[in-house]
């Protein structure tokens, strides 16, 4: 993504001392002209650096390089700041781009400084996940029937996965993460499902099934993000390039061929939000029929 490349170049200039603390950073208009990008792309790069504390807005001066203490010198480094910076990297570039050295570089501290707060990258990822799951909660006094509460739980988790696409990639459903804030979402769903009057084994299985639907749809969020970054092709561009191959694949399969023809005539967009809602409604309809609720 072009805004990430612009931000990385500015970080390098700051790290090399070409832009010392207090120096004015190139304006959005200058960055857009120098890199041949839209103003919005250049603004996004500066916004990312501001979020990381690398630059700051000064009245009548524009955007300047932040002082080292604000950028995360040892005295200003905390576990919370470490986690939030790591989340910002994973949100923008994917979990595969996350490294302890990279986080330290974003914070402007020595490469070993983060190890004062976490033992390893794995521990950092768990802290990131716990913080991400803790960004949304539920009403203190639940209202509505089991279906309404489960719908709210599913949509809440979906919103978190959309905000942090890497979150759905952390592990298989067979190895749940022991996270305090994830338990909040689990308790909300379990309390709703318990109204179906099932035994403990069935209750656990239904919760796994419910969570699997949300997570299973969400794994495609970062995969699409990664595909876009590596290929430079949007989903629509990629599908256009594959049209001949798909038509050849469907040859000899009449239902497949008829569906493609109808979709071409009517128009079709694969929208993950819509598929998530469709799947959740089907799941809840099935539970209502199966358990007479």
TrEMBL record:
Gene Ontology molecular functions: DNA binding; DNA-binding transcription factor activity
GO BP terms: negative regulation of DNA-templated transcription
Matching InterPro entries: Bact_HTH_transcr_reg, Homeodomain-like_sf, HTH_TetR, Repressor_TetR_C, Tet_transcr_reg_TetR-rel_C_sf, Tscrpt_reg_HTH_GntR, WH-like_DNA-bd_sf, WH_DNA-bd_sf
Transcription regulation found in the keyword field: yes
Domain HTH gntR-type: 1-68
Portion annotated as DNA-binding: 99-118
Transmembrane segments: none
Record-linked Pfam families: GntR, TetR_C_1
PROSITE patterns given in the database record: HTH_GNTR, HTH_TETR_2
Record key words, sorted: DNA-binding, Transcription, Transcription regulation
HTH tetR-type domain: residues covered: 76-136
Alphabetical list of PANTHER family matching this protein: GNTR-FAMILY TRANSCRIPTIONAL REGULATOR (PTHR44846:SF17), MANNOSYL-D-GLYCERATE TRANSPORT/METABOLISM SYSTEM REPRESSOR MNGR-RELATED (PTHR44846)
Name of the protein in question: DNA-binding transcriptional regulator YhcF, GntR family
Organism for this UniProt entry: Amycolatopsis tolypomycina
